[in-house]
From TrEMBL:
<feature type="signal peptide">
    <location>
        <begin position="1"/>
        <end position="24"/>
    </location>
</feature>
<keyword id="KW-0732">Signal</keyword>
<protein>
    <submittedName>
        <fullName>DUF4185 domain-containing protein</fullName>
    </submittedName>
</protein>
<dbReference type="Pfam" id="PF13810">
    <property type="entry name" value="DUF4185"/>
</dbReference>
<dbReference type="InterPro" id="IPR025442">
    <property type="entry name" value="DUF4185"/>
</dbReference>
<feature type="domain" description="DUF4185">
    <location>
        <begin position="51"/>
        <end position="351"/>
    </location>
</feature>
Length: 649
């Protein structure tokens, strides 16, 4: 692209010429095991290790959370929520431990805890402890950048029914003295709406990646969707430096944020696992009464459907949260800290094995209905009319269970809400069979809450399971509702199994510029220099629109950040044509923020649309910038570009 970067291109390509490219695999948790207590008093008869003896060593008899992050120097911070001690007047809103334990097979041991007096863990972030003002201050995430440590916390106004609470705001606190003291920054805060209590960024999880800190967030309580922001890692305290994922790109407005994963989600934890080349997300789903896991190839998704990490009936402990330990991030063994309500309020170290599965590209949760533990139906599936789950009745296409609807009249359907990327193509598939009298069935996608149909296929009598396929574009929608249903006329039934929804392979958003709303370039596309969108001017390669760059001097280009799997090979292509005086055009991919060029091809005068193609390897990057541009060295010069694609090799 830029002439002075040609040398860096050569250096970068040589550095990766012997790179062994890993293939990402989706993952499923198996072999769940409770390893040890982390906090609390070991009750009579319990055989698990209790290495920290927090009741006698730190005056902690009960606490929860256990957020773990790498603090540097071979140590980890372990951060807890509301903490009980000896007596009613020894309530602390939060406490903090330091651990250098790297052998988690026999439990997680502390080196020490931050203390205010010997043998008494300190409350590191104070709270007013006044109900309907500030009843407590609860930490939700932590990260270390350089020598400074950061905590994301929420100021709780009041506790409501189970899983419901209201927050005044969330904020960032920092420490420059190894966690001994913490300062709540006065402006690094996300204030809640005290009318609806619905700000999207009240609870968080942090992931450091590529010079940014990604902040996954939910509203207060456990019933919201998961949203995403990011900030340069050295700007965590600058609220104006945060950018919010809007479904296609990054917006400076919180209000523009769209969900990256649909809830209900509480106490989120996110980490990158280099062994599987996948991002892992865990949280409590109150509707399913289970701790669940999702995985994705990039920080923005697409996130898989939920997979059960800790089932709701696990030893009757009333468990919640699964905060992953960083020592899990490079292997197939997942260690995490889990909290329990009873028989006591405390934390435990858990272990699961991550195994490869075939569900990673499928964003439907419980696609085969195999984790349904009750009839008629459980979240995330829902029913209009009459229906439920055939559990181990021999009616399933695969496995033991399937969904069904059955009634004598009216509309009856089984449905699920999922997150999609706006203006993106998807393929929906499912296997359906029906009673012989069915005449008016439909399988498809629509706007949630029984909104407008986006696309559907009709079906009549299907005596055997038959695969149905619907292809659709999500349009301006961030959520869609998948449905299988029928209009009943007499006793009529439909059975469905093995539902899948898969995003198109092309990673480029607004790839043909048809969804660009005006002649000004808008997210996810950006400009260097001068350019715009040709709308309905007859200049497009296909469709009505194309992008252009045009000026009489300097570098001018259209570009987009795309999210990729690390250490993976991709093919980039687009159709380009130019003015007759163009002599110095470039098309390719590079690292973000003016980083090294991964690969590019040059072009001079191209009088008719010509397809240009380059391959590149993402290296250690989770996002790269694709571009098409030219140096306007010969006066008024232009290029036009259309129909971009980036696909994994």
């Amino acid at each position: 692209m830029r002439k002075k970067l040609l040398l860096s291109l050569l250096v970068f390509q040589l550095a990766f010429c012997t790179l062994l490219i890993a293939s990402a695999e989706a993952v499923t948790p198996t072999n769940l095991e409770m390893i040890a207590r982390v906090t609390g008093v070991k009750p009579a008869g319990e055989t698990m290790p209790n290495p920290n003896q927090t009741d006698t060593n730190y005056a902690i008899t009960g606490t929860d959370l256990g957020i773990v992050w790498d603090k540097g120097g071979g140590q980890y911070f372990v951060l807890f929520g509301d903490t009980n001690g000896h007596g009613p007047n020894d309530w602390r809103s939060n406490t903090l431990a330091i651990s250098s334990d790297t052998n988690l097979a026999d439990g997680l041991s502390f080196d020490t805890m931050i203390q205010d007096t010997p043998g008494h863990a300190k409350e590191i972030l104070p709270s007013k402890k006044i109900n309907f003002d500030e009843i407590t201050v609860i930490p939700t995430a932590g990260v270390t950048v350089g020598n400074r440590h950061y905590i994301h916390y929420m100021s709780v106004n009041n506790w409501g029914p189970a899983g419901v609470w209201s927050t005044n705001y969330s904020g960032i606190a920092y420490s420059d003295n190894n966690g001994a003291t913490w300062t709540k920054h006065p402006t690094a805060r996300w204030y809640n709406n005290t009318t609806n209590w619905d700000n999207k960024f009240q609870m968080a999880a942090f992931v450091k990646d590529g010079g940014f800190v990604y902040m996954y967030a939910t509203p207060n309580g456990r019933f919201g969707d998961v949203y995403l922001a990011r900030v340069p890692e050295n700007s965590l305290l600058d609220i104006n430096a945060y950018r919010y994922w809007d479904g296609n790109g990054w917006s400076a407005s919180q209000a523009g944020a769209d969900a990256v994963a649909n809830g209900v989600a509480g106490e989120v934890s996110v980490a990158y696992n280099s062994h599987f080349n996948r991002y892992i997300m865990t949280y409590l789903n109150e509707h399913r009464q289970s701790i669940v896991m999702r995985d994705a190839p990039t920080p923005v998704g697409p996130w898989s459907g939920e997979k059960i990490l800790v089932p709701g009936d696990f030893t009757g402990l009333g468990q919640y949260n699964a905060f992953m330990h960083p020592l899990s991030n490079n292997g197939s063994t997942l260690y995490f800290i889990m909290s329990t309500w009873y028989p006591d309020y405390n934390t435990h170290l858990m272990k699961a094995t991550l195994t490869a599965d075939m569900l990673g590209s499928n964003i439907v949760t419980d696609p085969g209905f195999e984790t349904q533990t009750a009839t008629p139906v459980m979240a995330p599936w829902h029913v209009d009319g009459e229906g439920g789950i055939d559990r181990n009745l021999g009616h399933a296409r695969t496995g033991e269970d399937n969904g069904y609807v059955r009634n004598g009249s009216g509309w009856n359907s089984i449905k699920q809400r999922v997150v999609v990327q706006p203006n993106t193509n998807y393929t929906l598939k499912g296997w359906v069979k029906t009673s012989s009298n069915n005449t008016t069935g439909f399988f498809g996608a629509r706007v949630p809450n029984n909104g407008a149909v986006i696309s559907e296929v009709p079906f009549a009598s299907l005596p055997n399971y038959t695969e149905l396929t619907v292809q659709f574009n999500s349009g301006n929608n961030n959520f869609v509702e998948l449905f299988t249903g029928m209009w009943a006329d007499g006793d009529t039934w439909v059975q469905v199994d093995d539902v899948s929804l898969v995003k198109e392979a092309n990673l480029v958003g607004h790839a043909g510029f048809e969804s660009q709303p005006s002649s000004t370039v808008s997210s996810p596309w950006y400009l260097n220099g001068n350019g715009g969108i040709d709308r309905n001017l007859g200049f497009a390669h296909t469709g009505a629109n194309n992008a252009f760059a045009r000026y009489d001097s300097g570098w001018n280009a259209v570009k987009q950040e795309i999210f990729v799997e690390k250490n993976t090979s991709y093919t980039l292509s687009a159709w380009i044509r130019t003015s007759s005086n163009n002599a110095d055009g470039y098309f390719g991919a590079r690292l973000m923020n003016g980083g090294a060029i991964l690969n590019e091809t040059s072009f001079a005068s191209v009088p008719g649309y010509t397809k240009h193609t380059v391959t590149f390897n993402s290296g250690g990057a989770s996002s790269v910038e694709i571009f098409a541009g030219m140096w306007a060295d010969n006066g008024d010069t232009w290029i036009q570009a259309d129909d971009f694609t980036v696909t994994k090799n």
